[in-house]
Design brief:
By secondary structure, the chain is mostly helical. It has four helices and two strands, in the order ααββαα. It has a two-stranded antiparallel sheet. α3 packs across α4. The relative contact order is 0.11. The mean pLDDT is about 75.
Length: about 100
Amino acid sequence: MNRAVHSHMKSIMPDVPQPDDPVFLGGGSRPNSRFRQLCSLAGIEPKKNVETNEDTPWLLKDLRKTCATYYDEHVQARPTNPTKISLTDSFVFLKH
């Protein structure tokens, strides 16, 4: 871990860390709602509808499609059991 990463990690740590607390709350009966909260926290803006020019919120299915497209385009050899792309990695795709 380089100094920049270490400094950033230190800056986002709570004053009193609670190792048993979850990193973020997940699950529940409304996963798209929680996903929108995570997008907001990550600074990911809503997507634009090209036909109406309106902002529409990201849904989990959009994340799945983005991951599948990235996997298809960038992973050369497909294993028998496809590798899962983590949620953290996927936020990077949505942000760019």
